[in-house]
């Protein structure tokens, strides 16, 4: 059966590169507001019942939202195995920190209000803060490192090797540009969380969320602009040298890569991609104005647009690179040499095309059922609230 | 290759996977039991069944959240600790994991929130459907995970690609309908159903002993024991199916589980108990039952089951054949398109044994430089730890059979003998609550430890699968997981016990009013009416 040859290998690779972006964006749009709301928790909720309101806005949906993260991991494994192998072992201790934070978060949501003790609840509130803020920051740090390039190389057997030890695997990731990227993602998701709380809460909590969200939006716009400037003047780009077989076998060592020039050269080659950063800035601006004016639904949508724009801008700027290597540029992973086989990409595409619409449909239905404000009365009067 | 890193990575995987599986079986079974209870509620409109749904649902929720949280670790651990494995087999192994997310995990996770928060927002039938979707999602999830695991045991539908230095999928159909995966799936979910049944019966028995929530407890026992009886039969039947498939897919695992050192004349006898001795290659004080092993393993009286010694000799042959493949692979890699056709032909002929040449990497950098002594050592490495497998398997099977008796007893007493349980039987039900977890963990131990020294049987050795990490890296994460998981476990157990002690807290008044009316009606119907209070 050669059904999979219906779609050319290179086209499948581009489709899966787009789907990788879709998953990252899907994750940031949904789980992003969970993380943002959790990071805001100690500041927008002053009393226990206010904090419970915040938690209950995400209470019914965090489990589904988190699947975007799990699915992202699974899809990278299935469609981009070298990326899965290199990045997670390379960012080893940072990944561990992210996992610990992400494990803490669901447990916090579920267990916090199961005991009446004030110290129990305060402890979980801070756990939730860490569980929201730490991954939001670290995901951005990771993206910053990807743009800078990562010190790995592949052996002849394609075994990923890392230069440097403990230092490189955690503290070494905290390079200034990467930290700036981390601030972009943290402030962007805090703004998104604030937009979510504006929609789902009322009164004092909503007012504080609107104020803090405005600040976060301004920080996001400034840091995003600074990161763009830094990319223009202070970060080396990567580019493929010579002929590239877009249909070739997935062996990164077959392609030659050089470091130098600027990532932003991509905007000269493909001017249309400027739409992504424009979406980012316009989205933030409109979301900030919406937060100030107290608009609810449209603010959340603008915030979503900004996130989609910012994440797309990274991918479009780097295309076709996925994970460049600083120590051995030829080991760099690109769209043309780091994918699964032709057949696996095809099978996975069929699965994704079949299931994604179903998932989106029932997710939309669940959000519709849960539509409306979470109020203090509702929580205190019900046995199943968090 | 750093053996300490290999051993620490194995320890970490075993620890985090077994910890994850403390929560999974209860999720698999309790999700269905809760959905059944809610279905009864929707059909009969009796508030007691809604109370049961909510009560067991709240325990389900406490358990579910840790299953989800610890599952995150599993999804990413392959890349973190097993990066060569991820590269080498990701083309096949990644697909079921991703499909699990698409088809199953999204379903259960999206609807589980609505299950808890949707009581006042949904109609009764809609809420019931939500409960079934959660159960369906959990069980589909197990399907895809076991397809992934089944492929590690029996790697069908894939071949090695010298250009990309990895295994690539040749048939998705073969991967999905792998006989090992299918048998393991039903065996595993059934084990989850038994776990949930033992849990529900045990907690209910405790209420009966304390004289609390009698109505809820009796009905729960009736549902749990009927469900558990069917599940316990299914566990044993599908366990047998797994054994049968191992006789032709994983001969070494089967021989090790049975401590069968020499090939016997068919039909082989079954060693009930004994003390396996790896040095002497014999089993001391063995109590043997004639014919049984041959019948279980091959379902015939004439097919031989090879013993460990013969399998080691076979492995030695495969290592030599694998070396031929390895040598050809090195030529292909250097010459690429210019490779002579006969070298390619040689590679094709021997490539199935390539993994066996990799076993030598433990002793020499380039397998082609291996000495005779290295080859003998590598061949001997293909024997997993016989003693632990032998005993773990027997304990698991013993527990498995005992649940049939327990479930049958409770099902008969609940349905035919008017719920008149003697106190010792109730105490027994409470005491055995932890045992299905022990059986389930032993099952995974037999499956995974029995596959050593391979991560993918005959394809990729465990020692070669790890990431390029330092012992320090692994010690940090290992210590982190131990500390973190221990705290979470204590918190989870504390909440579980707190909520069990508290008992049902919702709809209490409504249920009591209905109960009183219901009792009246039963009294009016005479003693016959009381014979089946479980309705």
From TrEMBL, chain A:
Origin: domain of life: Bacteria
Subcellular location: Cell membrane
Keywords: Cell membrane, Electron transport, Heme, Iron, Membrane, Metal-binding, Transmembrane, Transmembrane helix, Transport
Spans through the membrane: 14-41, 83-105, 126-154, 174-199, 211-233, 272-293, 305-323, 343-367
Topology of the protein relative to the lipid bilayer: Multi-pass membrane protein
Broad class of where this protein is predominantly found: membrane
InterPro entries: Cyt-d_oxidase_su2 (IPR003317)
Pfam families: Cyt_bd_oxida_II
Family of the protein in this entry: Belongs to the cytochrome ubiquinol oxidase subunit 2 family.
UniProt-listed PANTHER family: CYTOCHROME BD-I UBIQUINOL OXIDASE SUBUNIT 2 (PTHR43141:SF5), CYTOCHROME BD2 SUBUNIT II (PTHR43141)
NCBIfam families: cydB (TIGR00203)
Name recorded for this polypeptide: Cytochrome d ubiquinol oxidase subunit II
Native species: Pseudodonghicola flavimaris
UniProtKB/TrEMBL annotation, chain B:
Record membrane topology: Multi-pass membrane protein
Keywords tagged on the record: Cell inner membrane, Cell membrane, Electron transport, Heme, Iron, Membrane, Metal-binding, Oxidoreductase, Transmembrane, Transmembrane helix, Transport
One Pfam match: Cyt_bd_oxida_I
Keyword Transmembrane appears in the UniProt entry: yes
Chief localisation class: membrane
Bilayer-crossing regions: 20-43, 55-72, 92-117, 129-152, 190-209, 221-239, 391-412, 424-446, 466-491
Organism superkingdom: Bacteria
EC number: 1.10.3.-
Cross-referenced InterPro entries: Cyt-d_ubiquinol_oxidase_su_1
Enzyme class: oxidoreductase
A Gene Ontology molecular function term of the record: oxidoreductase activity
Cell compartments where the protein resides: Cell inner membrane
Family assignment from sequence similarity: Belongs to the cytochrome ubiquinol oxidase subunit 1 family.
PANTHER family per UniProt: CYTOCHROME BD-I UBIQUINOL OXIDASE SUBUNIT 1 (PTHR30365:SF0), CYTOCHROME D UBIQUINOL OXIDASE (PTHR30365)
Protein's name according to its UniProt entry: Cytochrome ubiquinol oxidase subunit I
Species annotation: Pseudodonghicola flavimaris
């Amino acid at each position: 059966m050669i059904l999979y040859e219906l779609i050319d290998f290179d086209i499948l690779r581009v489709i899966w590169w787009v789907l990788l972006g879709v998953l990252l964006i899907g994750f940031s749009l949904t789980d992003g507001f969970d993380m943002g709301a959790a990071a805001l928790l100690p500041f927008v909720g002053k009393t226990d019942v206010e904090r419970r309101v915040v938690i209950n806005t995400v209470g019914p949906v965090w489990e589904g939202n988190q699947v975007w993260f799990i699915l992202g991991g699974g899809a990278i494994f299935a469609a981009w195995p070298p990326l899965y192998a290199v990045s997670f072992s390379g960012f080893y201790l940072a990944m561990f920190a992210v996992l610990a934070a992400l494990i803490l978060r669901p447990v916090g949501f579920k267990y916090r209000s199961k005991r009446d003790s004030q110290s129990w609840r305060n402890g979980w509130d801070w756990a939730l803060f860490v569980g929201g803020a730490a991954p939001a920051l670290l995901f951005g740090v990771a993206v910053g490192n990807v743009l800078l390039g990562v010190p790995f190389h592949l052996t002849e057997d394609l075994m990923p090797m890392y230069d440097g030890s403990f230092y490189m695997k955690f503290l070494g990731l905290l390079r200034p540009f990467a930290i700036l990227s981390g601030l972009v993602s943290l402030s962007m998701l805090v703004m998104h969380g604030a937009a979510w709380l504006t929609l789902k809460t009322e009164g004092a909590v909503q007012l504080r969320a609107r104020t803090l969200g405005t600040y976060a939006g301004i920080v996001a716009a400034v840091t995003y602009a600074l990161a763009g400037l830094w990319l223009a003047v202070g970060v080396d780009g990567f580019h493929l040298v010579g002929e590239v077989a877009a249909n070739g076998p997935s062996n990164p060592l077959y392609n030659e890569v050089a470091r130098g020039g600027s990532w932003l050269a991509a905007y000269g080659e493909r001017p249309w991609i400027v739409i992504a950063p424009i979406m980012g800035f316009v989205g933030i601006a409109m979301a900030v104005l919406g937060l100030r004016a107290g608009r609810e639904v449209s603010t959340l949508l603008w915030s979503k647009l900004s996130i989609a724009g910012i994440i797309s801008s990274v991918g479009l700027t780097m295309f076709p690179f996925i994970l460049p290597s600083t120590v051995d540029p030829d080991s760099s992973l690109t769209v043309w040499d780091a994918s699964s086989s032709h057949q696996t990409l095809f099978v996975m595409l069929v699965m994704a095309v079949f299931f994604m619409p179903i998932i989106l449909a029932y997710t939309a239905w669940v959000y519709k059922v849960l539509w409306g404000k979470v109020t203090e009365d509702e929580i205190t009067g019900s046995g199943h609230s968090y | 290759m750093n053996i300490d890193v290999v051993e620490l990575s194995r320890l970490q995987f075993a620890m985090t996977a077994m910890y994850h599986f403390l929560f999974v079986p209860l999720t698999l079974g309790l999700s269905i039991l809760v959905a059944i209870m809610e279905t009864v509620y929707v059909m009969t409109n009796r508030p007691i069944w809604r109370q049961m749904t909510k009560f067991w649902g709240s325990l389900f929720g406490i358990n579910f959240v840790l299953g989800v949280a610890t599952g995150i670790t599993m999804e990413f651990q392959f890349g973190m600790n097993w990066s060569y494995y991820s590269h080498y087999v990701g083309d096949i192994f990644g697909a079921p994991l991703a499909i699990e997310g698409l088809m199953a995990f999204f379903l259960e996770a999206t609807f589980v929130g609505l299950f808890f928060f949707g009581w006042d927002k949904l109609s009764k039938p809609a809420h019931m459907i939500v409960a079934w979707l959660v159960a369906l999602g959990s069980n589909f999830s197990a399907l895809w995970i076991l397809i992934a695991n089944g492929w590690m045991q029996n790697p069908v539908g894939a071949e090695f690609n010298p250009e990309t230095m990895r295994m690539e999928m040749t048939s998705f159909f073969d991967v999905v309908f792998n006989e090992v995966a299918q048998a393991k799936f039903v065996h595993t979910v059934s084990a989850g159903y038994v776990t949930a049944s033992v849990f529900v019966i045990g907690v209910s028995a405790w209420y009966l002993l304390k004289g609390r929530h009698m109505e809820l407890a009796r009905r729960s026992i009736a549902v749990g024991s009927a469900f558990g009886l069917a599940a316990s039969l299914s566990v044993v039947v599908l366990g047998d199916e797994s054994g049968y498939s191992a006789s032709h897919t994983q001969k070494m695992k089967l021989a090790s589980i049975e401590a069968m050192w020499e090939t016997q004349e068919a039909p082989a006898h079954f060693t009930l108990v004994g003390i396996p001795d790896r040095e002497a290659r014999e089993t001391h004080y063995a109590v043997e039952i004639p014919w049984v092993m041959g019948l279980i393993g091959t379902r015939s009286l004439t097919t031989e089951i090879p013993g460990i010694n013969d399998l080691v000799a076979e492995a030695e042959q495969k290592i030599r054949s694998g070396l031929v493949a390895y040598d050809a692979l090195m030529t292909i890699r250097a010459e690429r398109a210019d490779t002579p056709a006969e070298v390619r032909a040689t590679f094709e002929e021997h490539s199935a044994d390539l993994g066996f040449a990799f076993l030598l990497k433990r002793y020499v950098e380039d397998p082609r430089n291996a000495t005779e002594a290295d080859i003998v050592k590598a061949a001997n490495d293909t024997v997993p730890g016989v003693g632990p497998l032998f005993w773990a398997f027997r304990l698991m099977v013993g527990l498995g059979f005992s649940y049939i008796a327990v479930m049958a007893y409770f099902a008969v007493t609940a349905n035919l003998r008017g719920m008149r349980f003697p106190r010792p039987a109730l105490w027994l039900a409470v005491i055995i609550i932890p045992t299905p977890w022990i059986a389930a963990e032993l099952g995974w131990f037999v499956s995974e430890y029995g596959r050593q020294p391979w991560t993918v049987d005959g394809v990729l050795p465990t020692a070669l699968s790890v990431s390029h990490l330092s012992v320090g890296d692994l010690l940090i994460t290992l210590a982190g997981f131990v500390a973190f998981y221990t705290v979470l476990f204590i918190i989870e157990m504390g909440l579980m016990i707190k909520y069990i002690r508290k008992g049902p807290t919702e709809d209490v008044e409504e249920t009591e009013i209905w109960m009183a009316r219901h009792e009246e009606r039963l009294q009016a119907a005479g003693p016959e009416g009381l014979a089946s209070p479980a309705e």
